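Instructor's aside before we start: the two examples that follow are unrelated to each other. I chose them only because their records fit on one page, so don't look for a connection. First example below.
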Amino acid sequence: KEMYVNAVNPPVIDSATFTNVPRNIPVYVPCGTKTDYETAILWDQFTNIIDRPAIILQVNNTVLGRVDTIQAYTCENDTVIIAAVPKSCYYFVAWDDDSTSNPRTFVLSRDTTFTAVFDSIIIALKDTIICYNTPATVTVSSNVPSAVYQWYSSLTDLTPFHTGSSYTTSNLTSDSTFYIDILGSDYCINGEIIRQSVTVTVYDSLIGGSIVEVDPYCYNSIHPTIEYFGEELPIGGSGNYSYQWQSSIDSAKTWTEIGTGKQTYTLSGELEHKTTLYRRVVTDKYGCGTVFSDTLTVHPVPTISAKLTEICPGVTTQVFPNRDGRWESSDSNIVDIIDSSTIVGKTPGTAKLTFYDSLAGSCSAPLSIIVTAFPDPEEITGDKVVCEGKEVVLSNTTPGGVWTHNNDNISIITQTNAPDKATVTLKGEKVGKSFVTYTVANGNGLCKSKRTFRLKIIDNTLPKVIIGIKR
């Protein structure tokens, strides 16, 4: 129960006026008349005379903040202004009637209670990862309504470099950390005022790597079908890649896709006749771009030939590589190099010639050259004189030779030997001298040696005998 009295002067009452009214109920009287009522007869029996509305200010937790009166109630001015003041590390959420006005202005017409609600400041930031040499956008939020965020380069900087709920960096090439606070509020960790931080992690620069240690590379016929590339892995970016292989046969003017999905590529017979460029295309699956490996030049094995592969000492022959390069002999005492296209036999034996591509030193091709010794036939045996019109048999113990003579007018070959007998029959045709030659050659017929035999053809008639008488 409560009583309201509007009279400025306390009305006259007697003992029966408020017979059953408790004397401790609130008695509201006009502003400024409390003393008059407290001293008036019989009114002085009431113990709770109030001449102005009461205002009760409280908080949800005194550790978090307080409520200050900026403008108090007076009889002349019933407008009251109050303010919720959070302590460090906390912020004002709202009044218990959900009003967020702060300071709060109102007209006090009756007893009123206001409770200020405070809470800890929570700043929401998320570390981020970006690709090398790209910008990052960092966003901040909190539970503080209409917060103004200030950005700093360090914990101790006094002047913010940016204000706002998000910040976009320039292109970054290294990790960066930024510090944020809320204007007019203090963010705390374990009760300590501190700026919240966010870190931008920058992936390393994406590098395509190498595909072999040696460039150019030779498509070695020893391994004609399988040769794996991929000796140096790509690095940087997110570390999660996809692969594409490309080749070019026109000095990198155009590239053709030849394989996908694998870090390595298996060569096959496509390199047999032409120089080919290879590269591995590396694409970062996180989106950090696409790069190329070092380009690998792969040459086909050189094609070489020789006019003769079996020669004699002192005999030269031509060699024919299909590109520029150099020759090496395994034994220059057997076969020596005269120039890029000529070799000479020196002594009997077999030497290995190797041609090295001038563009790719690892590209080589072998060629065996046999140097055959000159044959050494025995001397021709037989009669050295034959009568005109008669035959003579000559022979040689070295088989496989060829008989010839120098003058059909003097002698003719009437019968030659079988290949394994080395004999010849000649018939003297006319008085004179005939030179008979027996020539022996090696397997390819280039290295020849001969023996010469001088045959004398004499008159076949008997000498005339003159008989005279001595007188």
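Example two begins here.
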Amino acid sequence: MSAIERRTKPTQCAFKARAQSQLNLRRQQRALFGNGWVSDAWWEFMLIIYASEQGAVIDRFSLAGETDQSFELTERWLTLLIDHGYVRRVGSQAAHDSRAHELTDVGRATVEQCLGAAGGTAFGGD
């Protein structure tokens, strides 16, 4: 990688800042317009997991609370994200309800690709 590429390629820290910026915007939208007007729960779940991957436990209850989604809808979206290879569950089968979720390598790369597109404006970002 050349020096120019190193200077212009967004870092993971920059991606996390963009993810947090998008989450803040979505929270402001929800506060102004109500939950029914803010769509793409799957994208918001991926942003939350991405932005908090530094050892934070993100379980389905935390995701539901962060996004004002029902537990059933949250579980449905998580199952779809898992089935498509973007997210995986971490933890024991016995603790199913409290297992953490993390992005797979494909999920992380996808989020970073979207956050890097147009300076982080993909999917209604900053």
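The beta strands are 87-90, 100-103.
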